[in-house]
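Repro:
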Amino acid sequence: MDDPVTSNDLSLFLASTAHDMKNSISVLSGTLEKLLAQTPPSGEANAAYPQMAHMLYQTKRLNDNLIQLLALYKQIGQPDYPFDVQPLEMQHLVDQVILSGAVLLRSKNIALETSYDPELVWHFDEDLIVGVIGHAINNAINYTHDRVRLAIAVVDGCLEIRVEDNGGGYPAAMLEAGASAMSGNRCGVNFLTNSTGLGLHFSSEVAKMHKHRGRAGHLRLENGGAYGGGCFVLTLP
């Protein structure tokens, strides 16, 4: 008789499958980015441009979810998951964010505005924070009319990273989900919005991992900001 499949075996299998899916989706996303970069956004020859832009948004969204899922698996299933806090200039951080989102933003005709001190240095895990900001910008694309703002500043001795949009603001359910994620409750699946809550849970866990002198990072969702729309606010000590 074959040995029974253990929960650990199943966990490893699911993680491996998610990793393979992530790699395939990354290839698809890269291909779409190249096609969009080579195609002018208007004209009879590119009637499929809006559909391609939407496909890129969805593939990036799915890829983000898989990356977040794998990161959480490593954090929970492998206590020795490398958490690499290093000093980083804000210019380098913003450059990475702009590079990763440039094609999608342009294809959606959304302007990304920034406000930050390029020489400001802060200590955090670069890969995790870039992932959190990238997820926030992709989410803002779903809510904004035509502008997204990335603002970074020191507030009350902490680094505050804000992703704001000029849409109608977050609905009440999203605001509640943000508060729930920081309180330690897992966000449930919302079949009306096709949201698993994974992005908020991932972002809140990344925030909490950053600690300094008795203070821990946190995130919040609110409405208002410079544009009067939705605001994703990540605070790091």
